[in-house]
Amino acid sequence: MPTYQYACPDCGFEFEKQQKFTDDPIKRCPKCGKRSVYRVVSKVAVTFKGSGWYITDSKSDKAKHSVETKHSETESSSTDGKAESGSKEPAKPKSKADNT
Description:
Layout: E1 3-7, E2 14-18, E3 38-40, H1 61-85, H2 96-99
Antiparallel strand pairs: 1-2, 1-3
């Protein structure tokens, strides 16, 4: 059940009330009794949990397939480039003995 914030512009009283989505908003101030209470819209804290958001999460099956195809083509071309260049050992740093 959400908690709603209310404020009365006449007396300045602010309060919170837990209500169902289907409940009608409060119209009368519990402090001064006037009928000018309004709901206050405020920021809401949001926490995202899980492994993350992906480009394919909300796409159609056709779009997912095209993204996956492009991704696999990119991977294969990058691994082909590595295979053609051969495996080279990294250059060893020279020590002081090598310089003399």
